[in-house]
Amino acid sequence: MTASASASTSAEAPLAPVGDAVGVPPRIIPRAHAPRLRALDGLRLIAALMVAAYHYGGRDGEVAQAWGSSARHQFPLLHSYFAYGCLGVQVFFVISGFVICMSGWGRPLRSFFASRASRLLPAYWAAIIIVMAVFALPVVAYKTVSPSDALVNLTMLQQPLGVDRVLGVCWTLWAEVRFYALFALCVVLPGANRQRVILFCAGWTLAAAIAQAANEPLLNIVLMPEYAAYFIGGVGLYLIHRNRRDAYAWGIVGVSWLIGQHYAVVKLWHAPNPDFFSYRTSYGIILVVTFGYLAVAAIALGWLNWANWRWLSVAGALTYPFYLVHEHLGWVAIKAYHQTLGIPSYGTFLATVATMLLLAWLLNRYVENRLTPKIRSALSPPR
Description:
By secondary structure, the protein is an all-alpha fold. The protein has helices at 38-57, 62-67, 71-74, 79-82, 88-104, 109-135, 147-153, 170-188, 194-214, 217-223, 228-242, 247-268, 282-300, 310-340, 345-379; strands spanning 15-18, 27-30. The chain contains 15 helices and 2 strands. The radius of gyration is 21 Å and the shape is globular.
């Protein structure tokens, strides 16, 4: 989510290289007080709400138990549109590529690691504890994981270890962590510059295609061919943000969009079938993926600089904790509002989103704002 739906969207002292000419090493000049890209915060919230719409009204499964019937009966007019909300994850990945490149540019590896760990872990740990506690209540019908599996979940390594997940959305964090590791080793460790970032994008694109052809599990885990294009596209869009005339960056974005829409269609399209919850057309899937790229491109080019309202920063801060808690705790809220209190479907949908946003605000204020600086300070290199 997700920079990730989860990464900071402020231009954390991005550094401007001078001397990209052949044979001349880039001289890095700090750019002080770079403006915050508040439109990126707003886009992150839009992507999170897309995913929430999918989880609440665009699929069956446990949420049908919360509603008391299939979501297609609760939202007869909108359920087929809500089904496209799962593509909010792809939008998150494009945003994450942009933000991680911005955050890692000119930053030493230890500082980059401290920034990512302090941003991801506090709300994640809190969400694990809250979901475990709520699901342990006798009045809640959903099954929780074992205590041992819950402890493993605190590491964010539950998926490769084959452990039951506390948070259904954490599979996206596993993709984010692998992207961070690749970017850190290939770009941040040797030092970010335009040439190195371009080589990283080109090399990863080719390697991911080879991994797909080889069908080798280890290569698929490391190179993530099904998700790589979105991260790479976001990185390319950050290069465009630095220089909108960079032909290589435009090429990176174009190729990544072509590959990204392919994987989205392959994964999410199926022929019309009454046994499926809903039918997504290939054109609809391509349209939503394209929206993600175009929206980040508009921000990269400065076309949305006018969207500079302070409340967007608040929205951006709520996105990550909202993304973490909205699915499983949303089931509990939906059942309470709809089946217990008798609130109609659309009212329940809005009340559940509002409740999860309130919980996200509490997590941001009382968990993230207190723990993030402490973790960052503990992990950062001494001055």
